[in-house]
Design brief:
single chain, alpha/beta, Spore Coat Polysaccharide Biosynthesis Protein SpsA, Chain A, 24% strand, globular, nucleotidyltransferase, 2-C-methyl-D-erythritol 4-phosphate cytidylyltransferase activity, Nucleotide-diphossugar_trans, 2-C-methyl-D-erythritol 4-phosphate cytidylyltransferase, transferase
């Protein structure tokens, strides 16, 4: 039984409001995706890190990835959605990854992932019959928006936060189980949702807020501060 990582990176990142796909935006002197790949490659238990790109991605070769070492392999089979990219990536590695091997799927935009986060997931979910995900309990009060009135959003209800967790990545499941799940439930926003569609209950492994997803322009500044603080320790 082995561990592999898979990073879907075929999206455009339209919410960033930039012309460059989000995964290639500069962060601390490197493309944003470099930081997540470097962390995954630094985890001793992970044998290979597969990056799923769009077939016509011309940006990847414009950057120097030599600092990542030999663990990283590119798959040019990305789809129109995250789920499609993961599914096609899983199919592409079937010759190298066994059905019982673990696959850790990680967002390219979670640049502040730390080795300790990944090791905790492997340690706590590696013996689980289903697998698990990194997540954090919801701390903020949640409001549900109602129908907009005069163009203004208004609160319709307060949603109880007890028992609610915010899903992060990596999300770790066995290759065969995850591929079956995504083929059964292809319209999902994360891998755990597909596993849940099979009637299974993935494990929640506590992480922390530094493992956030860069989504908006201001997030790049926050990610840079986190990475800089780590480098100074």
């Amino acid at each position: 039984m082995s561990y592999f990582a898979l990073v879907p990176a075929a999206g455009s990142g339209s919410r960033m409001g930039r012309g460059l796909p989000k995964q290639y935006l500069p962060l601390a002197g490197r493309p944003l995706i470099f930081h997540a790949l470097a962390t995954l490659a630094a985890v001793a238990a992970i044998e290979k890190v597969f990056v799923v790109l769009a077939p016509d991605d011309a940006e990847w070769q414009r950057h120097d990835w030599s600092g990542l070492g030999e663990k990283v392999a590119v798959l040019r089979c990305g789809g129109d959605t995250r789920a499609a990219s993961v599914t096609q990536g899983l199919r592409a590695v079937m010759g190298d990854v066994a059905a019982e091997d673990w696959v850790l799927v990680h967002d390219a935009a979670r640049a502040c992932l730390a080795v300790a986060h990944v090791e905790a997931l492997i340690r706590e979910a590696g013996a689980d019959p289903v697998g698990g995900i990194l997540a954090v309990p919801v701390a903020d009060t949640l409001k549900q928006a109602g129908e907009a009135v005069d163009g203004m959003n208004r609160i319709a209800a307060t949603v109880p936060r007890e028992g609610l967790w915010q899903a992060q990545t990596p999300q770790m499941f066995r290759h065969g189980m995850l591929l079956d799940a995504l083929e059964f439930a292809p319209v999902v926003t994360d891998e755990a949702s597909a596993i849940e569609a099979l009637g299974l209950k993935p494990r929640l492994v506590p992480a922390d807020a530094t493992n956030f997803k860069v989504t908006y322009p201001l997030d790049l500044h926050l990610a840079e501060l986190i990475l800089a603080s780590r480098s100074q320790r």
